[in-house]
RNA sequence: GCACCCGUAGCUCAGCGGAUAGAGCAACCGCCUUCUAAGCGGUAGGCCGAAGGUUCGAGCCCUUCCGGGUGCGCCA
């Protein structure tokens, strides 16, 4: 499939071609940089490496020679070439660039920024969220869910056939704990008013008791073994625990707008575990220890781990290795991605290495752990379900929506918004939940997050609310413009203006207008980069910057009352394109773009 | 002890080996008779944890150290 070419791509290609056409540099020495904001150019070519390769002594002179040898084509996107120190700087032709960008945003609409040629329909597995059954989702689950879902949207926009998998924690000794407690105390949590809360309490009560009396844990381990062995009561009870928990999880996912294609819990892979251990033993990857446990040793690079406990039960590593191989056999993905906390880095290194040693090198190479730092409280302490310090995800969402409703009502009282009473609940949800999502996505994932209500609900500056507000302002202008009769040039799109000897872009020449256009043009680049780095923050940053540049334009350049009808139309086109860009950026983050707020 | 992540403005963070290191928050000063002031402009704020090295050029790459976090078989 031929790669997709946006205006910004053509700008870069044009610069590269102009440089190579001089015969002084070859494409291998060309890397284009973004000039610093104080430099009046849009693309820069640092000549140092090329000058060296060409045997030119002085980079400054080489840059001057290059610039003077370049012949600009008549209708190209580049309008000016200038040497500056060891750089050759390219500036766009404002009118032609503006026309091209506006046209492509108008043409692509909701798909502006997408590039399906990157993924080219290849399969990709993306695992995220993966909460444990019989627990409530707390703020710690937010990161995997939100980062994962945004990556899902971004990778789909890049043309991958993405399978989103919610790898539910529905297996393991923790279920032995619950079964032991339910059995001992003859409990029926599924009949309680808040069944999942009951499970959380049962689990914590049992663990507390087990610390006093370690023999209880033996009972728990025994019950998990029974579950694995297919004990009827254990299986039925376990299924009930899953069912009652999923009801609650699904409600949370619906609020967040998060989607999954499959929800194979760990238990799904359980039938594959025996054969997997057998295969690992036969291939000499694992070995049986004296106590009966099956272990894997990795030279001195990685600490060793277990595939089977001495009582015959399996572990997390066993199930993940089986999952990995299953995914290879089922999907043959080019990437197998896990969005899981940083504390599991070693775990995934071990799993991928086990799989590699078993001969599944393709899936080992394709597998990737996208890790993120832990969420802690303001003092840096981790949230603990046991100590009752955990903040539940639904609480956070409720609080965010409450605050959004409060603020919207204030604006209604001040007469600052056209929002209707009926629209408030929907918009408050978009705004409140968007705020929570954005607070996680705007920064890179490696750092930990200190959970702070005021910060997560912050409503100034780099927040989703600012972006949504900017979008609503765009839409407001466009609504008002529709109330007055459009002039012919706007009604016929770019055609009318071009007949007058220049597109609407030729009128958008103020710095404020140009900066918005140039930022708009970069969305495809930002989306591709986000996909390459698996980093939604790239898209968040682009979207925020577009909103910021537009806010400056909004302040300086009247649209509806522009000096001439032609300029009004040209600016309306810019407003429309900006609204589209903001919406597309927010959408890729999993955040809604309200019409009014 | 070993491994990985982080260390950039008072706080939270951006910064593909390139030009004078950037945003937001907080602080201070301005701007609503004009498209939503949830906004815009301005001021102030920095030995980019430290020291060596590589390079024409280092916040970015290498080495060592310091500080914080996380993880190191019968939990997940």
Commentary on this structure:
The chain is built from 24 helices and twelve strands. 55% of the residues lie in helices and 9% in strands. The protein has a four-stranded parallel beta sheet with strand order 5-4-9-10, with helices on both faces. Strands 1-3-2 form a three-stranded antiparallel beta sheet. It has a three-stranded antiparallel beta sheet with strand order 6-7-8. Strand 2 (78-84) and strand 3 form a beta hairpin. It is an alpha/beta fold and 597 residues long. The structure holds one RNA strand of 76 nucleotides.
Number of DSSP helices? 24
Write down the Rg.
Answer: 29 Å
Give the terminus-to-terminus CA distance: 42 Å
* Strands, count: 12
| Beta-strand content | 5-15%
Inertia-based shape: globular
Residue windows where pLDDT falls under 50 for at least 5 positions: 487-501
Biggest sheet, open or closed, and with what strands and sense? Answer: 4 strands, parallel
Helix-strand category: alpha/beta
Spatial strand arrangement across the major sheet: 5-4-9-10
Mean pLDDT: 91
As a percent range, the share of helical residues equals 40-55%
Summarize the structure.
The protein is an alpha/beta fold and 597 residues long. 55% of the residues lie in helices and 9% in strands. It is globular, with a radius of gyration of 29 Å.
